[in-house]
TrEMBL record:
The lineage of its organism: Bacteria, Bacillati, Bacillota, Clostridia, Lachnospirales. Residues 10-224 form the Thiaminase-2/PQQC domain. This is Aminopyrimidine aminohydrolase. It comes from Oribacterium sinus. GO terms for biological process: thiamine biosynthetic process; thiamine diphosphate biosynthetic process. GO terms for molecular function: thiaminase activity.
């Protein structure tokens, strides 16, 4: 069994739970309070900033030229998405530079990104690759499932662009490339140290599951309007 198949098997129930969260359901139905979505966009911005930092850490740890090129491509795409798409969308919601500067990441985003940084530092490249894939893959899963279930309401929702982005063929294909890259990297690691295969597999599954738990907690806290902030933000 591929590593990605194990990760999916152990985590799919958490992703499914995310699709049942009121935040996403009301987005799909077009009735989510815009103030909650504004907060999501801010918190997602802070997450993306850390995501890019982690990608750059992983690029420095990648040993294969092909993997280095892959990481470079992901960094480029993510930075473009952040600065050419995400920030302009924030502006449309009335989120200006001053608000970005004054706002900080909520506790869940802080804990989540700190956890991934810790895995990269302590466990290395493969752990970080696994952790970041969970975010990309979960959004592809959510986009697909929500589009299937709420196909009649999403086209009328003011948030339809969000669902279209994460269910788009291009996004799904890019995510699959990430999955394939992880599986390839895992096969290399296995061949180099077969004795630690089981232990390492279990560790990667735990990391993947933990990240999925953070994602679920984030959807819950966003709907509750959690405003307790930590130190990540525009002013740092």
């Amino acid at each position: 069994m591929k590593l990605s198949e194990l990760l999916y098997e152990k985590t799919e129930s958490l992703w499914l739970s995310s699709t049942e969260e009121p935040f996403l359901i009301k987005m799909a139905e077009g009735i989510l309070d815009q103030s909650l979505f504004r907060n999501y966009m801010l918190q997602d911005y802070f997450y993306i900033l850390e995501y890019i930092k982690i990608l750059k850490e992983l690029r420095s740890l990648a040993k294969k030229p092909a993997m280095q090129r892959f990481m470079e491509e992901i960094i480029s795409v993510t930075e473009k998405e952040c600065f050419l798409v995400h920030i302009p969308e924030m502006k449309k919601l009335g989120i200006g530079d001053e608000e970005i500067e004054k706002t900080r990441a909520c506790q869940v985003v802080w804990d989540y990104t700190s956890y991934i940084h810790k895995q990269v530092k302590e466990e290395g490249f493969l752990a970080g690759l696994t952790a970041l894939l969970q975010c990309s893959w979960s959004y592809a899963y959510i986009g697909q499932k929500m589009t299937e279930k709420y196909g009649s309401t999403i086209p009328l929702s003011p948030y339809k662009a969000w669902f279209e982005a994460y269910s788009a063929k291009e996004y799904v294909e890019a995510n699959q490339l990430w999955i394939d890259s992880l599986d390839s990297e895992w096969e290399t690691v296995k061949s180099e140290n077969i004795r630690q295969e089981v232990e390492t597999t279990e560790k990667l599954c735990r990391i993947f599951q933990s990240c999925a738990e953070y994602e679920l907690l984030l959807w819950q806290s966003l709907y509750q309007g959690i405003t307790k902030m930590k130190g990540i933000g525009g002013g740092n």
